[in-house]
Design brief:
10 helices; 8 strands; alpha/beta; eight-stranded mixed sheet; globular
Amino acid sequence: MTTVPVIRRASISRDLDQALNWVQSLGLDYSQSRFLRYKNELKLQEGILYLPPTAEREGSDSAYECSDLIFIHKGLSGLKSPILKRKLKALLKGPKHSSDEKPAGGSHQARDISLELVIASHFALGGFDVEFSNDADVIVRDGNTTFYIECKRPSGRNIEGTIDEIYHQLRRRYKGHKSDTQARGLAVISLTKRLIPDSETLLVNSPQEGITAISQILQSFQDDTLKLWHKNLHHQTMAVIGYVSIAISLGGRRGLMMNRQFSGRYVSRTRKTDLAEKDPDRVYFNHIVSRLNQGVLSAFASKHE
């Protein structure tokens, strides 16, 4: 589990300014984007002691959307890549709220790309070498291993179809791999839209209440889909990762928690537990998850209040 400590909207506003300045330094104009609207809303709410529930959720949703860009800035601002710039340009588009997305019209693409960049930021903050190409959503290099990472954020219940699609994409990546490094694959499935279809914010009474709710969703995802992960499994695919990124609002001036939580399950090539526990790939994967969690905690340590 990775949880960013409690933060205030004023802090989010300052970090957003830095992220938008970075975007602007790349030659990208955000003045007509949804992020300018988020920025203005956060500024208006900074000094207000009490907000009605509707306004509270609206402000928290804006803070959540900003937190993704802030997170991407922290992880990827040192990376020079024309593909990254192209992805950031696409990220600026899209409707203000994810609930207003219309898949048939392609309005979901901005947040699909945001997920790819957020996952890349997790790896960058964890000390991995990250690159972007047309060969996968994200490519990560670690020593003699090249990871091809495919990311999906389904809005419906067809997780089986989503896993099949990712597995198919990863098999194409392995087939086209031309490096001397070992090719492995990771499948990342965002569960945020399944958790709260109409918002990006959980309104709760305590941090633990929100974290427990998300943990239960992630555990349910594991329990319900474990059999599907072994179906059509390629031996180079290491893990399927359930991912939730969501704002947990504590109400009023008590602040927000930006919860980024993984439910990574190593997909063993054997179903025998005693053999799987000794698999060196499992040990390697657990080490990867530990680095991802530590990287995020280190990046946001200064935000603890």
